[in-house]
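Annual report, structural modelling task.

Input specification for the 2-acetamido-2-deoxy-beta-D-glucopyranose complex:
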Amino acid sequence: MVSYEPCRGSDEGSGAPPAEPGFRMKMPRGGRLFLATCLGSLFVLVLYFQTITKPEAGLKTGSQPGKSRRSPLQTLYNGDQQPELLAAQSSLRGRRELLEEACLSHTKKRRVLSPDDLKHLIVDDKHSLIYCYVPKVACTNWKRVLMVLTGDGRYTDPLSIPANEAHVAGNLRALSELSVPEINRRLRGYLKFVFVREPFERLVSAYRNKFTRSYNTAFHKRYGTKIVRRHRADPEPEALEKGDDVSFQEFVQYLVDPRTQREEPFNEHWERVHSLCHPCLIHYDVVGKYETLEPDARAVLSVAGVEGSLRFPASGKSTRTDGNMAARFFKHISPFYQKKLFNLYRMDFLLFNYSTPEYLRTR
Ligand SMILES: *[C@@H]1O[C@H](CO)[C@@H](O)[C@H](O)[C@H]1NC(C)=O
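The model returned the following structure:
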């Protein structure tokens, strides 16, 4: 369990199915859930669309009775605070607008939002926050921070929380666990944020973490053995059994193989943000970036009104964003596969304004 590691909520099928118009869902837990989800998605769709066109509609419902503190949404939208924050906010607003435009021009019809789509959205009722967690984008630290925020004073220092503790299901609440009216109220009134990262840097980070570390035996067994079986000519029996020496090239072949996603959704560590967090269906107020993690995290905490009491943990590791990791790994990938892989992750590049990497040889 622990070896399964960072930023998993539930591992099975936690990557949502590829966004598709219409009503199509995996039903893992039988009829009751199916019914609930059917009803749910209708309401989520109908009510939530009001938010997209009228963000201020959420402000009224968002402030709870007897609570005089401004909600983060009010703080964010009534731009009347400190100048540093305003500067940060104008760049965040730029990103939000770019995301909206990209959604308009690159996605087809809007599809129904179902509670099943909300499994990665973590709720903090105390501070009116919703965070969509994306593995390999500082999500352990964000989960720690949310545990401090929601924890009734049980924790004060995020870094005192062990990483595996931050990933225990049940320590944090997912939006998908709530009833439909409860979901809608929060989607309308809460500050919704997500953190993203250059898609191939994130992918290489996932590969290195899951396939080149000897302790990740669960991933080797579950994914490694299958990758070796399918994508290696003449594999050794030991490799077939352990699946612990998958090359990046084999991993890429696995990702672009049409069978892979036909059989099950991608694991959340390599699933696209577009499919995990539905940024064209859920109107995020803040899109933070791993590349500017510190100022963006500060902006979120400041809007949430907790900046004085809580700091986002600084990354101690030097592995953070040297920006060249992916280039080194892609050297050994043929232009044919580079192109296929880029198409697979294209939406994440477009929606979050990441330019096509210069090292790609796709022409
Ligand atoms: C998008 O990326 C370009 C190039 O990196 C940058 O100049 C621009 O400011 C970005 N736009 C937004 C809205 O962040």
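Strands lie at 121-124, 129-132, 173-174, 191-196, 286-289.
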